[in-house]
Amino acid sequence: DHLSNSTKDGWVKNCTNNDSEQREASDIAAFYNAQGISVFVLNYRTKGLYTETTSKKIPGEYCYKQILSDGLRAVKYVRYLANKKYNEYYIKKNKIGILGYSAGGNLAAEVLTQYDFDYMSIDKNYVEDDIDLVSAKVNSAVFGYGVVDFDLNTSKSTCQNFSKGNTTIINSFNPKTHVDETTAPCYIWAE
Hints:
alpha/beta; 14% strand
């Protein structure tokens, strides 16, 4: 966590999944913190997750639903902290954003557009708590060189990694197809 003791608006969450992105996230978090914005860094799961067809953990494989679950739960956690009477992180509950780069940019796009995904149903042992009662809808988003459209012609390797070629998954979780008038504003850039 990179926290500010200022009362400036909001926070930004960096989505990271490897050492390189972790270093990048820490640098960016420090920048935002200097501006008075509290930042939480999410290290989401990518290995040893349950696959779609089996309940066994398979090292090296990851499941899109569990990665999305990590992102949604993180947003809910920050909003839950903002709702507490003693808000030690100076978070404004209507100023919660998500920021991600590369694969984290894809996760940020998923969180932006799939905020109502029922992540609790994917784990039969999941126990709901007070954090699950708050909204996972972000108020803004920033994607840096992340895939925001699962077009097989332009992002074939990402689609393959994300879905293992399953077109149902590609169609269900394509961020572009879930944008509507209720989608929070976002900024997208690519190198």
